[in-house]
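Q: Could you fold this chain for me?
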Amino acid sequence: MAILTEDRFIGAGHYIVSEAHGMYRSREQGVIASGAGVLKAGAVLGQVTATDKYVPFDPDGADGSENAAAILFEGCDATDADVRRTLTVRDTEVHADVLVFAEGTTDAEKTTAMASLASAGIIGR
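A: Sure. Below is the predicted structure, expressed as structure tokens.
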């Protein structure tokens, strides 16, 4: 018998519980910076102050990426080039347990990131 293994990090917007009426209030287009690598939907992102581009949240960053600012709506490969993607940026309830953080991110750092997202109205449930 074949065993089915599900990836809980698949599908655009899989992390959304609810969002503002007229979903476009909760989402915007943004640029994922070249070099960010392959990212899954639900990745927590910081915004680099100098470029306004998004990169994976980095609690040790000093360029703006240390502040969680958005969640990637759909996966992408930004290894070699900038990629434009849809982002959740405000007024959304999310399944906090399925958000994607960089490997090694501690629980305390995740809590700080969730507080930063909450300031934009992105609430973890």
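A (continued): The helical segments are 107-118.
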